[in-house]
Design a protein that fits this description.
The chain is an alpha+beta fold. 46% of the residues lie in helices and 17% in strands. α3 packs antiparallel against α7.
């Protein structure tokens, strides 16, 4: 099996136009590749020049002008203007990853994707533009490729080495915006939970697309496998809430079952005992199920020396920034119980129950700050993934 690591870069324009979710939906639902990493970064002029040169000299295009067109695009759109621009790097692993990503990205020139042949199957069919000058068929008036990806593995290796060297020292949360009212600006954390990643699906991208209606800016993206230790810390504040909320309810339910079974009335003293024993134990079991759901492992079965190991299930963390970010995201997300969520919200569309409810969003700016620290949003493993793969193929 020819297993490869390759990438898709989502361009600054595609990100700014909130088309990232649609791109991710197409990638995840149409490919048998695994998304193993994602990182948003802001290129420098030097990075753009090096990347453009690799594209220009790759010699992999059927038309010579294509390389020049893409190279010039990178120079003009990746280089900083008044500020550095956001680019999203996504790493995919699998058999013939480079070819498959190139195929799903689609062709550049109109003879390869003219109106009559556009089917909407590729990313560029849907999101790219190439407008030629009607008076000069060799002159391009407007060009937006939507995404960039290598056409062969040789080019992939060159560009991935460039990426690995660049992002290792770059911040993983992009701070490139000056706001008129900075005191109103909030950051909030969204986690697209493991139930969305069990099989190839457009759901993660669709959820991101739904959050885009808030008009908030995505400033960080991370593919993450939450350890048991992280899950315990992340959901720690929930434990006492579950105990206070669930213990009385299930103590009362246990009492009712016993009364029916034995045809007797349960005293207040016994009810308190059932609440403090069975009710508390039930609440703690629900908490343990949350930890298992988010990390893929039962906390009680994990040895102490393995608590900090990455979990067996995947999620995606995104940081959104803007005015009233917490409230705006939670309005689109919907309440914890999907059955009580309004139509059009994320949890109403995709949630199953109060635990398998498809996504998490911070409930306050302070909570967002704490949660981002728990999952180490300032640290991203894309550099390590790239470096390890490049070392393996370079010998």
């Amino acid at each position: 099996m020819n297993e490869e690591l390759s990438y898709i870069l989502v361009t600054p324009y595609t990100i700014a136009k909130s088309r990232t979710g649609g791109v991710i939906s197409r990638l995840l639902s149409r490919l048998d590749l695994e998304l193993v990493g994602a990182q948003m970064f802001a290129p420098t002029k030097e990075f753009a020049e090096k990347y453009a040169e690799i594209i220009r000299t790759s010699g992999t295009f059927t038309r010579q002008l294509t390389g020049e067109l893409l190279s010039n695009y990178v120079l003009e759109n990746f280089s900083p203007s008044t500020r550095r621009h956001r680019v999203l790097l996504m790493l995919f692993r699998g058999e013939n990853a480079t070819r498959k990503l190139s195929d799903i990205a689609g062709a550049i020139y109109p003879e390869n994707r003219g109106l009559e042949s556009i089917t909407g199957e590729t990313i560029r069919d849907t999101y790219a533009d190439l407008i030629m000058d009607p008076e000069d068929p060799n002159k391009v008036r407007y060009f937006e490729p939507a995404v960039l990806t290598p056409r062969n593995q040789e080019t992939a290796l060159k560009t991935m080495r460039l990426f690995a060297d660049f992002i290792k020292d770059e911040p993983t949360v992009i701070e490139n915006m000056v706001y008129k009212n900075p005191q109103k600006i909030e950051r909030t954390l969204v986690i697209i939970k493991p139930d969305n990643w069990r099989y190839a699906s457009s759901r993660p991208g669709t959820i991101i697309d739904m959050f885009s209606r808030t008009g908030l800016r995505v400033i960080s993206v991370k593919v993450h496998r939450m350890s048991v230790a992280e899950a315990l810390e992340f959901y720690g504040p929930v434990k006492n809430v579950l105990r206070d909320k669930l213990a009385p309810v299930f103590g009362q339910k246990a009492s009712e079952v016993l009364e029916r079974e034995f045809n007797m009335e349960i005293s207040d003293q016994t009810l308190r005992f059932l609440t403090e024993s069975f009710g508390v134990e039930y609440a703690e079991d629900q908490f343990d199920q949350i930890i298992e759901f988010m990390s893929g492992r039962k906390s009680k079965d994990v040895p102490v020396d393995e608590l900090n190991q990455p979990g067996s299930v995947k999620c995606m963390a995104l940081v959104y920034e803007g005015e009233n970010a917490v409230q705006r995201i939670r309005e689109v997300l919907g309440p914890t119980d999907p059955t009580k969520a309004p139509g059009g919200t994320v949890r109403r569309e995709f949630g199953q129950d109060v635990m398998v409810n498809t996504a998490h969003a911070s409930d306050a700016p302070d909570s967002a700050e704490r949660e981002m620290k728990v999952i180490k949003i300032q640290s991203n493993n894309c550099h390590q993934i790239l470096d390890a793969y490049l070392k393996s193929v370079e010998g």
